[in-house]
Write a structure and sequence with these properties.
The chain is built from eight helices and eleven strands. It has 227 residues and is an alpha/beta fold. 29% of the residues are buried.
Length: 227
């Protein structure tokens, strides 16, 4: 799932982005209100983590603009403003949750999962499936044929990308940008290594392969009856 963080404090923003990525989420970061509103309006994020005190536009203005534009992306305020009236204002503007700094990252993750679990009208499903392979996006669990598969955060993000776009050949450049947030370097084998490890978990123990290499093009996740 894709999270947008709008946070102007450099260390906090970097900490949040890194922590969410290690937890298996795709995380974008905007460092001011103007950029944050633009990304929130134009992106396809599943959750917005929003500070209140921001340069350009504050968090109240961003949320108000989103709701006036009928953007129903869930919003979690993460701010040092701890007065009761601030909490009330955030919730009345349409926020889904309000967490005060300083915070424990474990609590933030729990609140993120709770907000995502509640979902929103018209939201994407929280479970992705292909054949007997299933990925629970909220509990961060993968199973195949009912058997639990332990994945690292990067393997989970890679499998989520493949499942969301199953049947489509994904070039290495796209995988690098979506999962590793980097430009593709033809001299590195990081993608091949990751795919090999993922296959060893979701394909090798089973009779039917789902991950296929398309020589010279990339990788595709495809059920045998569609291949």
């Amino acid at each position: 799932m894709k999270v947008l963080i709008v946070e102007d404090e450099t260390k906090t923003g970097d900490y949040l982005r890194q922590g969410l990525r290690e937890a298996g989420y795709t995380a974008d970061l905007a460092r001011n209100g103007v950029d944050g509103l633009h990304l929130a309006m134009t992106g396809d994020h599943d959750l917005l983590i929003l500070d209140v005190m921001l340069p350009g536009l504050d968090g109240w203005q961003i949320l108000d603009a989103l709701r006036r534009a009928h953007k129903d992306v869930p919003v979690l305020f993460l701010t040092a403003r701890d007065a009761v009236e601030d909490r009330v204002k955030g919730l009345e503007l349409g926020a889904d949750d309000y967490l005060v700094k300083p915070f424990a990252f474990s609590e933030l993750l729990a609140r993120v999962r709770t907000v995502l679990r509640r979902g929103r009208s018209g939201a994407e499903p929280t479970t992705l499936r292909l054949a007997d392979l299933e990925l629970d996006l909220l509990r961060r669990r993968a199973t195949r044929g009912g058997k639990r598969i332990d994945l690292t955060a990067k393997e989970f993000a890679l499998l989520e990308l493949l499942l969301r776009r199953h049947g489509e050949v994904l070039p290495r450049s796209l995988i690098a940008s979506q999962v590793w947030d980097m430009n593709f370097d033809s001299d590195t084998n990081v993608i091949e290594v990751a795919m090999r490890r993922l296959r060893s978990k979701i394909d090798d123990p089973f009779d039917t392969r789902l991950v296929h290499t398309v020589r010279g093009m990339g990788y595709v996740l495809e059920a045998p009856d569609a291949a």
